[in-house]
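Just wondering, can you check both lines?
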Amino acid sequence: MDKTILEFNGVTKEYKDAETRVVSLNGINFKLKKNSLNLINGFTGSGKTTIFNLITLMDIPSDGNIFLDDVILSGLSNSERTILRREKIGSFLRYENLMPYLSVLENVMLPMITTDKEKALKILEVVGLSDKIDTFPEGLSTHEKQITALARAMINDPLIIVADEPFADLDDENTLKLMKLLNKIKNITSFIILSDSDVLKQYFDRVFILKKGKLVENKN
């Protein structure tokens, strides 16, 4: 049986002040399997950013539970959350988060728990950037910047990598290249992609549609 790596169980997230109450997520449930590639598709305002913040432990649910490899995330102390975020959760953000004054290799090594240049070089070989290790971000194409950000998310061997709109600035050709790379390396980790586009949904193991805080699986 495939192992469940991430589970949302009745997760609701509310934001409120003295006058307003906004329900960003409303009792959502889903399970993701180990070594799988998953898409959560939804337009701006659907709750994608909230899911990103919950998985990366930047926020906690108002109700319900989130499990990562059987660990209840909402029950952790602040220090435990920090450790788990660093060791087990990769954040694949857009390339603007690369440090412009660091080389590709230095950017990838930046979040390492234990400095290991050989490991970083091996990951850069896996993603196809071995010839760019000494290049600075300004010398990279947009696609190469995205791949550098992906390699950095992989560096601490996370259980899962969550990516926020990784295809947003790529043309069709490079979007397909990145999609094929993610499929190639899902044997290393699990992925959850948050995107407002579903044009490549046939490449994902599972596709979920997020609308007004509700989540349903697309069976087509």
